[in-house]
Write a structure and sequence with these properties.
There is one protein chain. This protein is α+β, with helices and mostly antiparallel strands. The chain contains 18 helices and 26 strands. Strand 12 and strand 13 form a beta hairpin. Helix 15 runs antiparallel to helix 16 and helix 16 runs antiparallel to helix 17.
């Protein structure tokens, strides 16, 4: 056991000031005779007792932390303000083994001001949920607030007794980076603020995440010192890590589905889109934030589809549709149009939509929604688009005669067509010629309709056409034009193929309630056209 050095008794007894020495745990090991003159307590009765027994209970914590001004109980049982600036002595391992200092009663006005400042400081410390500290190079912590015991479990004495205590308890994985920052502060040439985040091993063995707000203080003629505030941010870090894990899981899932992700703050109109979202529309692959959400989206949507997309979006935000899903043609960065599905869900607060999130899909990469052979939308996309038109038409206000008040703006027609003699083409020339015939039919259909209309391949040699904003008479004329265009010969390699089509048509004037009702009516009309060689048959 190391021995506690004792000052020269004869020399110290001659001093008029009170000399106090304690061990590392505050047990009094030496007092000169001035102790009795100042405090009224006998030296013999005080030796071997803890100095903390004489300190006002409210001041014990901050005195242990390194605050030199506190109240001391005198022999008359009254507490008086004193100053005792301790100077530690250390062993070979630089651990504190004793403390010595001169005890002075505060009587001057300037000292009273210091006391008031100290009291305000102590009250402030009590409101801070963190550890206030001061450290000096080669000395360690010269001040440490009592909260260190509650947050980390170590006593102030344990921590302050060892200059290397902090470094010894930083998590090994964070130590190297923390030391770089710490050493830079100790060797700084000018004062500056800095911040560290690291894990600290508590006395219980628990790992505590710490955010350390620090300042290096560089003053002429004295070693660098640091002051700071250590805050326990374990709960925040755990939340961030769980969020990151959740985001990583979600990111993996979305990459697996190959969809682009978006989040829209409707209050600020800030739209966050993922790298995959931008990749689908050919605008790069890095996540980005657009301050004008709708303006950004509007530029992506083909002009003929904008009103329809916006109407579907508004219906969802008004609460008229539980989910939001719409297909449209988007401008690609390469200068072409791509079919995409934009879907999502809004979140409401007090009935007001405040945020929205969802995904963007490239329909060309979703085999069930897009036909790879003809490069046309498939059955799911057609059904979704038809469902949107049915909802718009049903919600449109009508006048007394039952006619739409917007002059047919929401009227539409569904065409279902089947190629004549397609099986014979496959049997005679082979399936590769049949496939090329389907491709040429698709291109002719697209050339016969407007940009706002939709052509889809349903299965085999069956196609659907959705005509928007069109009355029954115009729809019938358009169907006849399509029939004439498809009846013209097809040149496929060295073969000339003749294959017309039978077309069934049903208009929204029939006011059928569901998608299946429209498709059944169109299918029935198409079979009547085929059986009676009518070319086009309009459902009754």
């Amino acid at each position: 056991m190391p021995t506690t050095p004792t000052p020269s008794a004869n020399l110290l007894q001659l001093l008029p000031e009170t000399v106090v020495q304690t061990d590392a745990l505050w047990e009094i090991t030496y007092l000169n005779s001035a102790w009795h003159k100042l405090t009224g307590h006998s030296v013999a009765a005080a030796l071997g007792r803890s100095l903390l027994e004489f300190v006002h209970p409210d001041d014990i914590g901050t005195m242990r932390s390194g605050m030199p001004v506190f109240r001391l109980r005198f022999a008359d049982a009254n507490y008086r303000w004193v100053r005792l600036q301790f100077h530690p002595e250390t062993d070979a391992a630089e651990r504190v083994i004793s403390r010595q200092g001169v005890l002075i009663e505060i009587t001057e006005v300037t000292e009273q001001v210091l006391v008031e400042i100290r009291q305000r400081f102590l009250r402030l410390l009590e409101t801070i949920d963190g550890v206030v500290w001061e450290a000096e190079i080669g000395v360690g912590n010269t001040f440490l607030s009592p909260q260190v015991e509650r947050l980390f479990g170590y006593s102030v004495e344990e921590w302050r007794a060892d200059p290397g205590f902090w470094r010894a308890h930083v998590h090994p994985d964070d130590l190297a980076q923390a030391l770089v920052i710490d050493d830079a502060a100790y060797n700084a040439t000018h004062s500056h603020a800095y911040e560290m985040s690291y894990r600290l091993i508590a006395k219980s063995g628990k790992v505590v995440w710490v955010r350390d707000l620090c300042r290096a203080v560089v003053e002429p003629g004295r070693p660098n010192r640091m002051i700071g505030l250590m805050i326990d941010v374990t709960q925040q870090k755990d939340t961030e890590l769980e969020l990151l894990r959740s985001e990583n899981r979600y990111s993996l899932a979305t990459r697996g589905s190959n969809d682009g992700i978006w989040y829209w703050d409707l209050r600020t109109d800030a739209l966050h889109v993922s790298g995959r979202f931008l990749q689908i529309v050919g605008l790069g692959s890095r996540d980005h934030v657009y301050d004008g959400g709708w303006h950004f989206l509007e530029q992506l949507i083909d002009r003929e589809d904008r009103a329809r997309v916006q109407e579907a979006y508004r219906r969802h935000l008004s609460g008229n549709s539980a989910n939001f899903s719409v297909d449209f043609r988007a401008f690609h960065g390469a200068g072409r149009l791509v079919w995409v599905n934009w879907r999502g869900l809004a979140e409401f607060e007090d009935g007001v939509p405040v945020r929205m999130a969802g995904s963007l899909s490239d329909l060309a990469e979703r085999g069930s929604s897009y036909d790879a052979l003809t490069n046309l939308p498939g059955r799911p996309l057609f059904r979704d688009r038809l469902a949107q038109l049915i909802a718009l038409h049903q919600n449109e206000a009508v006048n007394g005669d039952g006619a739409p008040t917007r002059d047919g703006a929401t009227m539409f027609a569904v065409l279902l067509l089947d190629l004549n003699g397609f099986k014979a083409v496959n049997d005679c020339y082979g399936h590769h010629v049949g496939d090329q015939l389907l491709q040429q039919v698709a291109r002719r259909l697209e050339s016969c309709v407007r940009a706002v209309d939709l052509v889809a391949r349903m299965s085999g040699d069956e196609f659907n056409v959705l005509l928007e904003s069109i009355d029954p008479a115009e729809a019938s004329q358009r169907a006849e034009q399509i029939a004439a265009a498809l009846a013209a010969p097809y040149v496929i390699g060295e073969h000339t193929v003749i294959s017309g089509a039978s077309i069934g048509l049903v208009s929204s004037a029939s006011r059928l309630p569901t998608v299946d009702d429209y498709l059944r009516a169109a299918d029935t009309a198409m079979y009547r056209a085929k059986s009676q060689s009518l070319g086009v048959c309009v459902a009754q």
